[in-house]
Amino acid sequence: MVNRAIHEYATEGETVCFEVQEEVFICSPEPFMASNFFATLLCNCQSSIFKPISLPRVTIEEFSLFAPFLHKPETAADDPGFKPQQWETIRRLATLWGFESVRQMALVKVKASLAREPSLSAGPVPKSQNPFLEIHEKLGAGVQEMAEEPVGGIGNILGEAGKGLATGVGAIVLLPFAVASLPFIGIHKGIKWASSKKAEE
Q: Which of 119, 132, 133, 180 has the lowest CB atom count within 10 Å?
């Protein structure tokens, strides 16, 4: 057997051994029976320190938080040192494995933490971090510039859009609109030219 870390949360009575990322967790099976997932798993699988039950989709850090909590949830619930991120981890794993009462408890704690510290809530995305707003502004600016430039054929318009390719995704969005805007820009310029000629006559 390869040497690996062992975490013990039960030292007396019946035990069950889980493996998370090649580390072994020795637990009491009783707290896990509240989950249909684990109840079925433990009824159909036997485990030992040499042949633990592998648990995917969870990290060592997460299970190191969840396992002791599951053994003594009341103690953890009254611990003021529990952070919102830890409660969110417990909520996620409780949802994943079907511990409904634990999920409800963690959800209440997460909401209470966010209410006490509004800064933890997700606020609006800053303009500098909102790529869609930036693309929208580039697109509007690009079309406006084309409307103000003399129409010298499709080469001029594609040339202007082509310059923008160096700016990245904004140019990719701008190019189709530049081509689509060509007929409207030409009509606009044609009307202005006809009106000026008629005024001269």
A: 119
| Residue that is written with structure tokens 């975490």 in the block | 7
Q: pLDDT digit string (tens) for 46-105?
A: 999 999 999 999 999 999 999 999 998 887 777 877 888 999 999 999 999 999 999 999
Residue identified by tokens 């069950």 is 16
**Sheet-wide strand order for 53-54:** 6-8, 23-27, 16-20, 53-54
| Distance from chain centroid for Cα 165 | 29
Q: What 8-state DSSP symbol labels residue 126?
A: P
Q: Give the type of residue at 44.
A: N
Instruction: Calculate helix-pair angle for 169-200, 131-148, nearest 10 degrees.
Output: 20
pLDDT value for 45: 92
Helices and strands counted in the chain (H then E): 8, 4
The two structure tokens encoding residue 22: 């090649």
AA identity, residue 164: G
Outline where 2-72 has alpha helix (H).
36-44, 60-71
- Of 52, 86, 54, 45, the C-alpha closest to 69 is 86
Q: How far is CA 55 from CA 1, 25, 60, 117, 166, in A?
A: 19, 10, 10, 34, 47
144-164 pLDDT tens trace: 444 444 444 444 433 444 444
Element (H, E) at 54: strand 53-54
